[in-house]
Amino acid sequence: MRDYWRINQQRLAPVLFLMPGLLMFVVYVIVPIFQSVDVSFYAWDGLGEKEYVGIANYVELMDDEAFYTSLKNNVIWLVLYMLAIPAGLFVALFLNQNVRGIRIYKSLFFFPFVISQVVVGLVFSWFYDPSYGLFNKVLGFFGADPMAILADEDWVTYGIIIAGLWPQTAYCMILYLTGLNAVDSEQIEAARLDNAKGLKLLWYIILPQLRPATFIAMVVTIIGALRSFDLVSIMTNGGPWGSSRVLAFYMYEQAFSEYGFRMGYGAAIAVVLLAIMMIYIAAFLYKMYRDERGH
Amino acid sequence: MLHNKKTLAALFTAASMMSVSAFSGELVINTDTSDPAPKAAFETLIAGFEAENPDVNVTWNLFDHEGYKTSIRNFLTADAPDLANWYAGNRMLPYVNAGLFEPVDDVWAANGLNESLSSAAASMTIDDKKWGVPYTYYNWGVYYRKDIFEQNNIAVPTDWAAFMAAGETLNAAGITPITIGTKYLWTAAGVFDYLNLRTNGYDFHMALTKGEVSWTDDRVKATMAHWKELLDADFFIENHAAYSWQEALAPMIQGKAAMYVMGNFAVAPLRDAGLTDDQLGFFQFPMIDAGVPMAEEAPTDTMHIPANAKNKVDAKRFLAYLARADVQSEMNATLGQLPINSGSTVSDDKFLQAGYEMLSTTDGGIAQFFDRDAPAEIASAGMEGFQEFMVKPERLETILKRIEKVRARVYK
Amino acid sequence: MFPKPIEKTAPPVRALYKIALPVALIIWLLPLLAVALTSFRSQADILNGNYWGWPTSFNMMENYTAIFENTPIGKYIFNSFRVTIPTVIGAVSLSCMTGFALAVYKFKGNLLLFFLFVAGNFVPFQILMVPVRDFTVNLGIYNTISGLALFHIAFQTGFCTLFMRNFIKALPFELIEAARVEGVSEIRIFWYVVLPLMKPAIAALSVLIFTFIWNDYFWAMVLTQGADTQPITAGLKSLNGQWVSSWHLVSAGSIVAAMPPVIMFFLMQRHFIAGLTLGAVK
């Protein structure tokens, strides 16, 4: 037995190491995904009996105004949320010094990520408040007319995205701070000797070494953009009249909210959301695959 | 043979008694009454029940109010308590249809509840069976700044013309007539309900909310036309879609708005913010059509026995206790709301008395509120439409068509 | 060291930086200061719309004691720890192993499995609610801390595996090759060679996972009921009334609730900085 192991361990070890984690993941995540895809072919109120309806949920989805609004908003979120990455990098660069107390500064800059999103949404709602909020006071200071961002169907999604960028930037900042610590100082010294400075140094030497951090930052920012549930829920409840809905929120509304008893329909929305995410993942993984091939 | 049968019978009885007594004595109650007043009311209620029934030991699980709405879907199937609170009307429907609530006609019959709780009997009935016991309700209406009205020589309006005139006077004085916060859509539904009840009457309103009437019907359009009158006359505060109902209190507290179409629960925070009873008043939503009897809104809170409960025997005893006149009087004194039992007394607060007066003399019927009368999907589509209409009234046709689409799908 | 170490710049730049830091911090934390300010207010202030002005009455002591009195917030915080710590330990351990397996060994389906972990993590988690709840009930661990922790461990393994696998991939493979040549068993290689090098990643990941789980609200709602098992996120929501929201209490509660993750980050900082060898020894 021992000999078998010793000879074959390089083949068997991965199985051993993978088993526990993989098992948990499959049971709690993969299988439920399939179960939910299954649910999307039924009409079900989550309480009683399921009724098979084939692709009726999907057909209805195609004709659903709210679905298209949510889809549009999701695209806006996906694009604009990416701003958190350069913002996070910028803040990380700003804090990447060794002055006294920098540890405290770093911890405090991290704070927005840690505070509950419900409270973040609440504070930003007050910030945008048409009568008492600071936003309109600032606008007035610059001579512009007051706006009720959260009550305006055209601007509401942007207002919420800004609120979401605050904790998300903190998250990216952490990832970049970690990455910056690992940057090869020899390469930097060598480049400095060659008289490279500032932006050139950043672009050609530093950023390539930050690729792993950027990769993770992109992954979590995309996940964050597609999950922006708490903020939408607390700031506008999907309003005004559904204009700030995103797919994750719409799904929740249909399946679990006070007035939502349509598990099958909600599952169909989630499947669509998953499909969108899959495109991103596939694109990423393809790029990763190519990068690793080229190594 | 007989001897065996007798033994068998005795054994059987003993066994069933044992299994009953294994569960009797333990009562599990889940509620969402996390606010100070309801929490206190339930504490007293449970203590009182335990005192009268010393053989029963109550375990009370208190949930946070919002989380409960999700939790209830889970605990009714997995780990059901013996009693749970919820709401009447179509809010009960999903659980009744899924067979998760226990019918309690026996409790109603045994305790004469069909008489004493008659005002809420209809809202507790689905498919000719009773599904729980109601213990409190509260009225809706118009809460207003008495002092602002007096300052501007406005009398309490009792009909539509007077209401419109009052609005005009207020606007001229630089005060917004009605404050409202529609971020959480139900507040707009309150306005719709009253306009519809006053324009078309209780029966039509019930038919509409049930889904029996098309939303593009002319009578619905008549209601919306009245609403448009209010919108054209600048009755509502600006940017209400950005405010929750609570944030919309601020203008009224500061004297920038004069009226609020709201439920009685608005009184407590208004008082907390510093308004005195001389500044606050209440009046019934004005009549629009003299030929239409005045109906009112009074959402009802209820207690139910889950179908998967373990100790239904004691749960039914609890429901009987809850339905008693004296128990309801005491509970509602703490809750600051109105008892259902016709034999109960109402506390001395001026607003409660006014509400009670109004509800007991109403001949037009009592509605549960839009999101409880209408099934869930129509409720949410409708409320969203109301909010949009208030800001973009020109979209009326599209809005009504959209709600109608939902209705058509739900009632194929 | 990038950007240029501040000691090496001219004195005016240094001074500017030293001023810029606190100013930037205050602007950055302005919303947080608003939350803190709200936690000092009275309910009347909030009802009056006074969100940004000077509080009309300082209720700091009342609010912060009220949250400990009105709600079993101590219990909630304890429950949060009871869920978060096992999850961090579980998810990080499992992902060290899975990340190791995926990074070091070439086998057919390696990339496919990796894809699986990444994809599963992108899932909108609401879709898992009913199947996971039913599964938890069937296992008999509904409304238990272990039920909640087990789900979190499983779900977070997706993200953690991604993180660890990338990290390990960037470690110098020569170390492992050298150890193999010397006949060291794979398990020992994992334990004695690779794991020590992963310390910074473990530290970083622990803080992240701690924060995620600490702030989770949805799954606490689905899988637990009652103060014996519910964590602080549910507890915060319970500070709000049925009709009237007590934002001053919620703000106070959320500041208290945010403390542990921040303290954790502060304590773990040393590990971030010291010797992260991600790509450095190549």
How many helices of chain B?
20
Q: Low-confidence parts of chain C, pLDDT < 50 over ≥5 residues? A: 272-282
Percentage beta strand of chain B: 5-15%
- How many strands of chain C? 0
Largest sheet of chain B: 5 strands, mixed
**So what's the overall shape of chain C?**
flat
Mean pLDDT of chain C: 81
Proportion of beta-strand residues of chain C: under 5%
H/I helix tally of chain C: 14
- Measured as a percent range, the helix fraction of chain B is 40-55%
Helix content of chain C: over 70%
Number of strands of chain B: 13
Distance between the termini of chain C: 17 Å
3D shape of chain B: globular
Order of secondary-structure elements of chain C: HHHHHHHHHHHHHH
Rg on CA atoms of chain B, Å: 24 Å
Strands of the largest sheet of chain B, in order across it? 2-1-3-12-6
Contiguous runs where pLDDT drops below 50 for at least 5 residues of chain B: 15-22
Helix/sheet category of chain C: mainly alpha
- Terminal CA distance of chain B reads 60 Å
Overview of the structural elements:
The complex is a heterotrimer of chains A (295), B (412) and C (282). Chain A has 295 residues and is mainly alpha-helical. Chain A is built from 14 helices and 2 strands. Chain A has helices spanning 2-39, 56-62, 65-81, 84-95, 102-114, 117-128, 134-141, 156-181, 185-193, 198-209, 211-226, 229-235, 247-255, 263-294; strands at residues 42-43, 51-52. Chain A has a two-stranded antiparallel ribbon with strand order 1-2. In chain A, a hairpin with a 7-residue loop joins strand 1 (42-43) and strand 2 (51-52). In chain A, helix 13 packs antiparallel against helix 14. The mean pLDDT of chain A is 85. Helix content of chain B is 50%, strand content 13%. Chain B is globular and about 65 Å long. Chain B starts with a helix and ends with a helix. In chain C, helix 1 (11-28) crosses helix 2 and helix 5 packs antiparallel against helix 13 (232-238). The longest helix of chain C has 32 residues, at 73-104. Chains in contact: A-B, A-C, B-C. Chains A and C meet through helix 1, helix 4, helix 5, helix 6 and helix 8 of A and helix 1, helix 2, helix 5, helix 6 and helix 7 of C.
